[in-house]
From TrEMBL:
It comes from Georgenia daeguensis. It comes from the Bacteria. This is VOC domain-containing protein. Residues 14-140 form the VOC domain. Signal peptide: none annotated.
């Protein structure tokens, strides 16, 4: 099995960026939440005929985490204590899990589980946010808690 360096192998294969595309019924609310509350910068916006709108927000380095059902259930058990996540969950690495959790809850996110130390030595919280998404906030390392 080949273990490529971070991004090098993917770049050789022609992959330069990962985008997660989310349909949001309340587009303005979702954009405002991720832009103004989470703090993701706007990289591009487009408008088209028929009222079509898209905003592309920068989120730093992207990875695609593929988990089998048992791993998804394990993460739910560790972070929340029960099975709650939909098939797609966003995870944002942050500097301050409790602070960012409070910030998102203050802006209307629903707290699903408070910051919790995980077996993989990170401090994770879980929220339900705009566009019906589940979000994990995580800070890694012993300085995270």
């Amino acid at each position: 099995m080949v273990t490529p360096d971070a991004g090098g192998y993917a770049r050789e294969m022609g992959v330069h960026q990962l985008r997660v595309v989310v349909e949001a019924e309340d587009y303005e609310k979702a954009v405002a939440f991720f832009r103004d509350v989470v703090g993701l910068p706007v990289e591009e916006t487009y408008s088209s005929d028929g009222g079509a709108e898209v905003t592309i927000l920068g989120a730093g380095r992207a990875t695609l985490e593929i988990a089998n059902p048992a791993q998804k259930d394990l993460i739910d058990d560790v972070e929340v204590g029960r099975h709650v996540a939909p098939k797609i969950r966003l995870a944002f690495q942050v500097d301050d899990t409790p602070g960012m959790t409070d910030r998102l809850v203050g802006a209307g996110a629903e707290l699903v589980a408070p910051p919790t130390v995980t077996p993989w030595h990170s401090l994770n919280s879980r929220l339900e946010v705009a566009a019906g998404l589940h979000v994990t906030l995580f800070a890694e390392g012993t300085d995270a808690y």
